[in-house]
Write a structure and sequence with these properties.
Two copies of one chain form a homodimer.
Chain A (H helix, E strand, L loop, with lengths): L2 E6 L1 H4 L7 H11 L6 E5 L3 H14 L2 E5 L10 H9 L3 E3 L1 H13 L13 E3 L3 E3 L8 E6 L2 E6 L3 H19 L5 E9 L4 H16 L7 E6 L5 E9 L2 H19 L3 E4 L4 H11 L4 E5 L5 H7 L8 E6 L3 H8 L9 H15 L3 E7 L13 E7 L6 E6 L4 H22 L3
Parallel strand pairs in A: 1-2, 1-3, 3-8, 13-14, 13-15
Antiparallel strand pairs in A: 4-5, 6-7, 7-8, 9-11, 9-12, 10-11, 15-16, 16-17
Helix pairs in contact in A: 2-6, 3-4, 7-8, 9-13
């Protein structure tokens, strides 16, 4: 089974919007074992959209299209599909009712132009919207098919998972269940991580077609992801295979793993703090609020996160955190800051960062010279040296996840 | 003149990387008056890349291609271009010397596989790399042309500006100068802004072909951008037209404008503070470090930014900032926080935020109920109510730029 992705929208051709839908669909197709050899973007032009669909159907079994399903005159994906399928547009009562219901639920008046969204190619199946107002469409073209979804990323992603992927897999005659899991890591680069995982690559290669596959995905501040994908006869078997492989990888990777699937570093830390009834305070220098911003991004963070100080000016480090006069880019300064913020905010756990983000050196230290210190109850406060490189932005971002990871490691080590 | 954009890379087809190059090139083509009707992504497959080039040249005058220029076996853009141009690959001494020089400068050993980067289609012009190791190529195909650039975004963008856009415009026979300027605004939505600018749309419509064009570009936390583009016989005339139109827009928009081109809100504030020799301290609650992170992102921020407190736990607001016991989501609490942070950190200017980011209500207030307060020397401290909506993330982000903008407005009002 091969599917081609088509993004429709003049705003994309003009570079006014970045198309994130195509990459999302591509990733989901790959995870579902569906090939994709071409991705195309075309503007709001009937002849060009129709030509693009025809070409796509000449080289693939299915087209997955996003955009151009709205109510305005430049939303012409419906017309293009009808032309390619060789059928007329028909006002579809189900589609009209869906659009009317969305307006009624929001207490808004529906203008007649919105009825355009009820005109669909004859023979099409409606995909009811759950998040937006535009219905999706499944349009048969002979033995082939065009799926059309709205361009709004959340609306598209929801329809893709709920309807399109399973319909595609049903058409492909593939009744196996495909499941995947992401193992999230920090602490090693992609190649060192791959080396560590070599025994599993070797084992899986000889384990037959139902063994999971392993793929790496570097994701900047979100760490390096290891995606496991498995195909099995039923969901329970797939889940068991993922569980077994995750256990194998965790044995190899140990504390490099900080979470699975959507679990972020800051959520992992929140869990550890909650489980130990500890409260965290921050003293940030070169990370300048980035660590706080990530922690506050988690709903419910107030249960374990007190707050912190952005001690950007050295005077604040001296005055509020007790750092002695002199250079402030050192392990000693970081340790004093971590202890100082615990006292100041009445927290049991302190995380402090100090360092040179650049572009200029500070206190004779080159950009990238950075320290993180962690204060924990009943343990000596310790600092780790972070040797970072790159732009000011990159040093601050990699410093942020590295400092959070240092805290996570120390919390793991500490007896609960 | 019409150009088609082709992105090469199996990692893009698998959704492992998000292609940002295409949108960047598209935007620059539009700004240079070059049409683009199709954008295509294809994997590392010789026949498919060559077919994609042939199709693109059948409907456009030029192809701009990114990716597949590296040294490994799956980098086959060079081979595909040679095939389409009907010429052999030749080892090019200039290209070899460029690649060797890059390795020598980095003190790294060059493996023989890197010599592949010196094999280019006969008749191609080399684009020397300035930021990376891979040379770009200009490959003539009869009267048409394929430009190939590396896939690394910064390397690509640099070559695009330095060589590709001007070469395209030269080929198009268009010797006019195209220049553009971005006017950056905050405070009104896109439609209200467009309404305010209506007199300029009307005036420009009747001003002839050398008048600037105006386009809007909503950019989230970076504000709403107004892009002016002008085409003139020479650079001085273009610049004068941009200056004149910017002046007209500034008259209409007044303090809604916070900067031009790459100038961010935080840079605009930095300039105002520096010009008035003032120092800023922050007390952030629901924005939780986001404001600090943006200010610290500017190199040299230490000249005007002291630091701040992330007063996430209400106890910190009470204890360190002097907020009286009771509800903390109010204009009064914000004002006390702004005054408190000035005293605590010895700053002349204080910016404080308090509010409900959600998803749950707090102190009986619904998510989105937020306040920002600004303390300035010799003025009463004032708070503004921000009524925000959306997800927790959106409330925090829009709250951040709104609070910064409130500070900017107050600094503008204050006599220097």
């Amino acid at each position: 089974m091969r599917a081609e992705i088509v993004a429709v929208g003049t705003e994309l051709l003009l570079g006014q919007n970045l198309d994130t839908n195509t990459a999302h669909i591509a990733e989901r197709l790959a995870a579902n074992g569906i090939d994709c050899t071409h991705q195309v973007c075309v503007g709001d032009n009937l002849a060009r959209i129709a030509d693009t669909f025809r070409l796509a159907l000449a080289r693939s079994d299915a087209v997955i299209c996003t955009g151009g399903l709205g109510p305005t005159q430049d939303d012409i994906t419906r017309e293009a599909m009808a032309e390619v399928a060789g059928v007329p547009l028909e006002r579809n009562p189900e589609a009209v009712a869906l659009v009317e219901a969305v307006f009624a639920a929001r207490g808004r008046h529906m203008s007649p132009s919105n009825l355009r969204q009820g005109d669909v190619p004859k023979g099409a199946t409606i995909i009811p919207p759950r998040l937006g107002t535009a219905p999706g469409l499944i349009v048969p073209v002979g033995e082939q098919v065009i799926y059309a979804m709205p361009g709004v990323p959340e609306e598209m992603a929801e329809m893709l998972e709920r309807v399109v992927l399973s319909d595609l897999r049903r058409r492909s005659g593939d009744h196996a269940v495909i499941a995947s899991r992401v193992i999230r890591t920090w602490g090693l680069g992609e190649s060192a991580l791959a080396e560590l995982v070599t025994p599993r690559f070797d084992a899986l290669e000889h384990a037959g077609p139902s063994a999971p596959t392993i793929a790496f995905l570097a994701s900047g501040m979100e760490g390096i992801k290891i995606r496991l994908t498995v195909k099995a006869g039923d969901a329970a078997t797939a889940l068991a295979a993922l569980d077994a492989e995750e256990a194998q990888l965790r044995t190899l990777l140990g504390p490099l793993v900080f979470g699975t699937d959507e679990e972020t570093m800051e959520q992992a830390i929140g869990k550890l703090l909650l489980g130990r009834s500890l409260h965290l305070a921050l003293a940030e220098s070169f990370t300048g609020g980035l660590i706080a911003a990530r922690l506050v991004g988690v709903a419910g963070a107030s249960q374990y996160f007190c707050g912190g100080i952005v001690a950007y000016d050295s005077a604040i480090k001296h005055r509020l955190l007790g750092v002695p006069a002199g250079p402030v880019v050192s392990a000693e300064a970081a340790i004093t800051m971590a202890d100082g913020i615990c006292s100041l905010l009445g927290a049991e756990v302190g995380l402090a960062t100090t360092g040179v983000a650049g572009p200029d050196p500070q206190d004779g230290e080159v950009p990238g010279t950075c320290f993180a210190a962690i204060a924990l109850p009943d343990r000596p406060t310790e600092a780790v040296a972070l040797r970072l490189s790159g732009t000011r932005q990159r040093i601050r971002e990699i410093g942020t996840i590295s400092a959070l990871d240092a805290l996570r490691r120390r919390l793991l080590d500490a007896t609960p």
